[in-house]
Specification:
The chain is built from 4 helices and no strands. The protein has helices spanning about 15-20, 25-55, 70-80, 85-95.
Length: about 110
Amino acid sequence: MDLKKTTAPINTITYNKSEIEAPTGNVYEAITIISKRANQINADIKKELIEKLEEFATYNDSLEEIFENKEQIEVSKFYEKLPKAHALAVQEWLENKIYYRDSKNQ
């Protein structure tokens, strides 16, 4: 997932309910699938952010000295400006990029 190339909106927008439910025929099932994908995306973003921040971490035994690392701040600002995980998941859903199985028909 390339977060820089996403077309997901940063702000909250209104979606057409029929577009959301079209692949499954049930809006609740579609929302469940989207929410599970949003959780996956959120976990991936969190893992990536922690890895990038640890590259710049300085470990110090003294609690009195706190260092502000400009690289850490820039990385944090980049991730704060990204679309939220639920917006990314909805965008993937609308572009038919999410694979799901219907366990009832198996």
